[in-house]
Each structure stands twice: as C-alpha cells, then as structure tokens.
Amino acid sequence: xxxxxxxxxxxxxxxxxxxxxxxxxxxxxxxxxxxxxxxxxxxxxxxxxxxxxxxxxxxxxxxxxxxxxxxxxxxxxxxxxxxxxxxxxxxxxxxxxxxxxxxxxxxxxxxxxxxxxxxxxxxxxxxxxxxxxxxxxxxxxxxxxxxxxxxxxxxxxxxxxxxxxxxxxxxxxxxxxxxxxxxxxxxxxxxxxxxxxxxxxxxxxxxxxxxxxxxxxxxxxxxxxxxxxxx
Length: 231
Prior knowledge:
Layout: H1 19-29, H2 37-47, H3 58-70, H4 75-90, H5 97-100, H6 104-115, H7 122-152, H8 159-171, H9 176-188, H10 194-210, H11 221-226
Helix pairs in contact: 1-8, 2-6, 3-4, 6-7, 7-8, 8-9
C-alpha cells in the first residue's frame, strides 16, 4: 500500500524555530542519514514480523496503524483510523512523525535488516545498507571527537560540542517524549548565528583531527583525504 503521511496541526500559538535551527537539530541528531523509502518499508516488514518480537514497539505499532489507514475500505473508516493514530500519539503510545524520524530503533532495524538475507533488489539494498554503514561510522567518529576535541583539546561547552552531545543523547533515548523534550531544550538554547559558529568550529575541528594521529585511522582516513572543507 502507498505510504500515508499524517499531519498533526500545531497549536496556533506554537512558535516555529528559524530554518537554520531546524538544520542544526537535524544534523545533531543524524537525521540526514534517513534511508530510501522502499528499502525502509522492506526493513520495516522484516523487523515487525511477529517472530522477531518487535510488534509492541513504537515503530511497529505506528507502522500497523498507518497500514490500517491505507487499507481502510472507505473515507469514514479511514478518518476513524486517523483519529486512533492521533490519540495514540497524544497519549505517548507511539511517536509523531517528526519524533519518529529520530527513533534509534529505526537505525537498529536497518542494521538488522542489512545483516539479514531477505527482501529488496540488490541495487536498492546496496544503497540503503551503504547509508547504514556510513551512519555507523558517523556515530563512531562523533564518539571519538567528543572525547578528543571536547575533552582532551579543551573545547567542552562549545556550540559544536553541545551539538554532538545532543546527538549522542538522542541516540541513546528510546522514549519519544523524552527525545522531543531534548530537541525542544536544544533548540531553545540556540541563539541567532549559532549555525555559522558551529560550521566554523566544525571546519576547525576537522582540520585539527585530520592532522592528529586520529586522521590516519581507518575511521577518519578517507574522510580527511576527501573532505572539501579541509582543502
């Protein structure tokens, strides 16, 4: 069935952060690593098979409810299913669309699916699983940089370090409501010009790490050789 997008209207007094703050949050959470729709759907079917024991999780519960909406026989049934989904989101039983994008279970699902042997054509699977591998390396590099740049090099408390710390916390947080709270807290702490400051520190940090012993490691070697910002 086709994918169904569910939009929950924000209150009229809700403030929307500037685009650069949204970009900062997305980068910090690793949201840029989202996967192709077709392969994600194949992985979701694999992950939510009853034998795997994930059907009670937020990811599979949301998938089941959106599938029920797509398969509704008529408009009244579809609207009733949409109301059920909204109620489940408001009650915190499943995640809303934006919060769902940061669910660490999604990355666990893709890693598991890529390690399995089922589903999807070879080319699509290669592309999706390449992103899984890239994201795994991204998370590993972030851990090294938090220790080395923020700790050993004395940059703890900088905007870039705060961004990386936020990403790590999101990565380790299963509850959608808590991820939402962390995101709102992070956005509230971003001042005008934060994006430019973070970008400048990103370049400084990468130049420094690439000239250190870390730059010769498997984790950083290719990135340091090819990264345009370092030229």
